[in-house]
Structures are given as C-alpha cells and as structure tokens.
Structures
1.
Amino acid sequence: MRWGTPPVRRRGREKKPLQYACTMKACGNRGNVSTRLAVLFLLIPRLCAAYLGIDPLRTELSVPPGGTLEGQIVLTNEKDVPVRIDVSFRDRSASGLVTDWIEIDTGEILLEPGESAPVPYRVAVPSGAAGEFFGRVGFSEVQDTGPGAVAVQTRISVPIFVAVRGTEDYRATITGVRVVSDDPLRAEVLVKNEGNVHVRATGECVVTTSDGDTEVLRMPVNAQRFPLYPARVGCLVAKTNEQLQPGQYIFDIRLRFPDEANVVSERFDVSVGEEHE
C-alpha cells in the first residue's frame, strides 16, 4: 500500500515531487453526562462482560491545578452466583513524575448475584501541574481452583483521564493517508498528536479529481471517536459505502482537534488502484 503525498507547491519553475514517507507499526486505536463543578464526565452505556457490569466504562475529567474531585465506578454482578472481583490501578501518565494524583480503593470486592457496589476514587491535581494524567482501573474475577487446576481470568480495563484545566495544548499534524479498500472506500489517516492531552479528533475527507476541480465524494474521519494520545502517532479511519474508481485523486482532510477552535488540515495526492491491494 502506498501512502499519499502532499500536492507539489509550485513557485516559479516546476519542482520535483516532495519526498514523503511515514512509518507505523500498527494502525488503529483499538480508541451519561454529569457536570459537577470542575468536572466533565463523558460516559457511555454500561459494559457487561458476561459476568460484570461496569458503569461508566470511560471517565474524562477536567480539573484545575490544585483542584480535587471525588467520583466512583459502579460494579454489578451479572451472574447468578457470588463473584469476587479484584480491583487494581495502573498509572499510564506520559510524564510519570507524579504518582499520587489519584486515590482509589483497590483489593477484592465480594458481590452477591445482582448486587452493585461502588469503587470510589479521589483525584487531587498538584499545583503547577500541566497537561494530562491518565490511568487504568482493572477489574478481574478471582476464581478458587483446586490443586493442579488452571484459572482463566477475564480482565477489564477502564480508563480515567484527568486534564489539567487551563494548561491544555492542542496541536497536531496530519502526516499521511492511504487507501485500504476502494469498494467500498476505506482509508487510514495518520495523525501525530503534538499536544499534551488526548483528543478525540473528528472531521471529514473530501475526495476530488486530481486537478481539484470536481468533488467525487466525502467521508467522515474517526466517526467512532477513538482517542489520539499525546506525543504519539495514531491512525484514524475514514470510510464510506461508496466505491472509488482507480485513478489519481486529491484527498483533502480536515480535523477538529478537538473542536472548531482548533482545526488541522492537509491535502494529499493519492493513487487508487492495484498498488493499494
């Protein structure tokens, strides 16, 4: 598969095409509203992993430097027998310099059939902090096994993001695009998050003829709202149910990063045909 190249910009005499390359190990981010003072919760429907309900599945907070906030994650036993759940936490913050920004009750919880129990936490953002703190709360069933038996555990990881309000840096560069399938059209957009917080960038890719005069189709980018983590390169999916015939095109990509106040855009020359298969 060939990555698209930015269109050649001509000034005076014609220039040779810009050398363009990008590398990636893997593509994909496989990425209730409640307002309370310094916090914004973005929650999605409860996850049920056969035996355990978790609500919310994702928590995103905004807290000022020196601020504190308390919250909870609610667990529900979906089985018809009691279960023991082991609760753990792992700090995944990029800086790794501050490890005491969150207090959370870890250890084991016994849940009777249909019973729910909260896992409380308290966030305390240090004064002078900037950017974002990020951690994952893990939940796994504790199974009692006899001698020689092997216990297979299912572990669910729930992210907690804490942005330090007023210090967010939203910057990004769209570095590449390639066509994965032309019928229906599916492309992958490579984006480098150069800021200090994760962003669920969304936008649109407008495909035109190679001369830029005729629009062929439009398709959304990152409709699933997968996150782009700070100081990393991520791959966002753009797709449509329409087919794109072989040929030369311009892909004009525009992303809200994360909203209309911060927009990044780039245009690429893309060849569609046998070379992308």
2.
Amino acid sequence: MKEGKDDHQTGKPMMPYCLCDFAEVEASQDPVADDEGPENLLTNCEDTKWCVEFHGDENVKLSIRFKRPVTISGYGFKSANDCEWRNPVQWKLKVCCEGFKPNPETGGEDFIDEQTVAHDLWGDDRYALKRFPLEEKVTSDHFEFEFFKNIDIECENEDDAPLLQIGEVVLFA
C-alpha cells in the first residue's frame, strides 16, 4: 500500500476543495460530544474535530455527499488537537454512486483506495495533514470512508477510552 505523501513527492498537483461550501457529511456513529460532530471535518478550522467511540468490533463509516459530482485525485486527513493514539491506521475509501464501474483488478470491489499505515506516520505533530493520492482520478457526488483500526486498537492500548478522531478531511482536485 502507498503511504500518504506530500505533493512534491508524488509529482501530482493536489489542489484542495473547500468542502464546507458544497458538501454534507454524516457518520455512522454519534459524536462523543455535541461539538465534535462530523460537520467539523469540513470547516478548515484547527479548533474543531470529529470524535466517536471506536471499539474495533464495529467499523465506523463517514459519508461525504456533494451537491454535484466532483473529480478527486486524492484525499488527506489532518490529525486533531490531542491523543495521537486515536488517529486512524486502517481504512477504505469507497465511491457510492450509480454508474461507477469498479476496477476489475480490485476484484470488482467498489473501493478506490485502501490504506494500512504505520503508527509513526502521524508523528507527534498535531494538525498534521497526511495526503493519499489515488491511482487515477475519480468523479462522484458521494464518497464514503470506512475505518477499521486506529493506533489505540492496533497497539491494544487500554489506558484511554476507545475513540477515533480526525481534525479535517481534505479532498484534492
């Protein structure tokens, strides 16, 4: 699997969309606090985050719907303000729209990216943006992330409540 890379490493221009202007986001889990809902992922504000309970026995889904189709070349996650062990380390990105033709090389699955990243990818830098370029551009009005593990679950850390958090989701044109 490829790891998140800065645009200077991939050679691809990755221009961010301003998601809050024309997208809505929903999550399969309720936030742990009223001010930590999925809408925070679209604000481009470091003072907010999305945070949900995450025990590892049930995957968490995050759905982003646009008012019109967009073409993306990649995506990124910003880490949140605290507790790096809550950062995701394993997920898939799916396209959820009629007319999408899955790649036969993925066994006909509807996912366009699958990541398992090293724990140290996130480092200690809070609000760090990690970029994940796609193999090829994809156009859709609905993308869905499904999260399988965070650092806490991967390391079997029992010192803290089992939570998953992300500071921001960024999609690149």
